[in-house]
Amino acid sequence: MNLLIAGLGNPGTKYEKTRHNIGFMILDDFCIKEKLDWSTNKNSLYAKFNFQEASIHLLKPQEYMNLSGKEVSRLAKMMKIPSSQILIVHDEIDIPFAKIKNKIGGGTAGHNGLADIVERLGNSDFHRLRFGVGKPIQPGMDVADFVLQKFSSEEIEQLHTLFQESNKRIQDWIREQIKIATKNN
Fold it and tell me: What is the rounded CA–CA span in Å between residue 72 and residue 67?
């Protein structure tokens, strides 16, 4: 069985440590803990490991956020991974900072990366790890400007604990997918 976990973000140093790149940051932390190295694969960074009877494919698309679906769908098709075995890790402005929620399917809430994934996969049946980055606190601030800002120093202090929670949720998701596959066979 193949599982795909994709973290969303924008490539380049300009966007490092911004709210919109939390998906990249979470997968980077996950790879450090799992002692995995990223390699370049087409227009993405890619890592892979095996757990029980599953091959886990990790992906960080290296095109801009609104083209995230290109690499997600390419790898899913190449590895024959159905949407139900894909986890997308992304920022979510409709959730307060420091809250993390799981979700399956649903709308995109204006998130261009998710919208591109839905369009290219042809459905929204994938799983999501939604990391709350909050909403702009300055009146009239554009949401795009807000998500492209770096985290505040107070937020950065909390990220380590939040990464631990995110990593636990990723591991739980992997185990659950394996359990479902085993049960269905």
Answer: 9
Q: Using one digit for the tens of pLDDT, what is the confidence trace for 36-62? A: 999 998 799 999 999 998 999 999 999
Any idea which residues carry the catalytic annotation? 20
Domain ranges of the chain: 2-184
Question: Where on the phi/psi map is residue 35: left (φ > 0), alpha (ψ -120 to 50), or beta?
Answer: left
Q: How far apart are CA 43 and CA 16, in angstroms?
A: 18
DSSP 8-class letter at 109: T
CA 74 to chain centroid: 16
Whether residue 155 contacts residue 97, with contact meaning beta carbons closer than 8 Å, is answered with yes
Domain 2-184 part of CATH 3.40.50.300: no
Question: What is the reported pTM?
Answer: 0.96
| Mean pLDDT, the chain, whole residue set | 94
Q: What was the pLDDT predicted at 74?
A: 96
Q: What is the DSSP letter of 131?
A: E
